[in-house]
Amino acid sequence: MDQTSTAAGPGRPPKATPDAIVRAAWALFEEVGFEAASMSAIAERAGVSRRTLFNHFPHKAALLFTHYGEFMRAFRDELRRQPAGSSLFTAFSGAFTTVAPMLEELEARFAPGPEVVAARVRDDAVAYWKGVWAREMEQIVLDVYGPEAHLKAGFAGAITAQFWTESIAMQRQSSGAMRADAALALVLQEFAEIFGVQLS
Asked: Of 66-80, 92-106, 141-155, 172-186, which range is least confident?
């Protein structure tokens, strides 16, 4: 549930939540464009200091997917539910298939405008999120399978990063008409066909 502020104690103004900061940033992006919106201007619009803004969002591209954390937590939980003994790819594809509809639900909740949608496929944004996805997936594998799975974690991070890059390329080619969950599903299917693995 989105909240615009949290309690900050007597005599202090309420603190903006990450969701509220993102909504302020998105409004500014739609007014002046992603490239023209500085982090200082975003902080001012959100009513927070630059330091607070950077504590929540270390890069302007980090503001483009406000629901990322929620999705990744759901993915981690679903991965834990996959049958014991499943291959890593089978477990990943099963978990993704289950939580993929959540991407569209979250998009509908936050309703990004055309400037946000266009900014998501910029080269700098793609590079930033490619790194984020790789690091997050490595950590998820270590969390679920233990520290001895460091090799699996490295492969999972690298493959996931490539999935992200290819799905963005598909969205670019469709001029934004293709949804993120549909693009990721197509990339997953293509990967399965190339390597002769069975999707769950």
From this structure: 172-186
Burial label, 199 (beta-carbon count in 10 A; 0-12, 13-18, 19+): middle
Q: What does the block give as tokens for 186? A: 């197509």
Range with the largest mean pLDDT of 58-62, 66-70, 158-162: 58-62
How many Å apart are CA 144 and CA 184, to the nearest integer?
22
Q: Using a pLDDT cut of 70, give the percent of the chain over it.
A: 92
Predicted model pTM: 0.79
C-alpha separations of 50 from 7, 44, 60, 77 in Å: 20, 8, 12, 33
H or E stretch at 170 = helix 150-173
Q: Residue 92 in 3-state DSSP?
A: helix
DSSP annotation string for 49-88? -HHHHHHH-SSGGGGG-TTHHHHHHHHHHHHHTSPTT--H
Handedness of CA 10, 16, 19, 24 (dihedral sign): positive
Query: Under CATH, domain 18-58 is a member of which superfamily?
Result: Homeodomain-like (1.10.10.60)
What token pair was written down for 109? 């909740």
Residue type for position 11: G
Question: What is the token pair recorded at 117?
Answer: 């949608």
At a CB cut-off of 8 Å and minimum separation 6, what does 173 contact? none
What one-letter code names the amino acid at 147? P
Average pLDDT over residues 72-93: 90
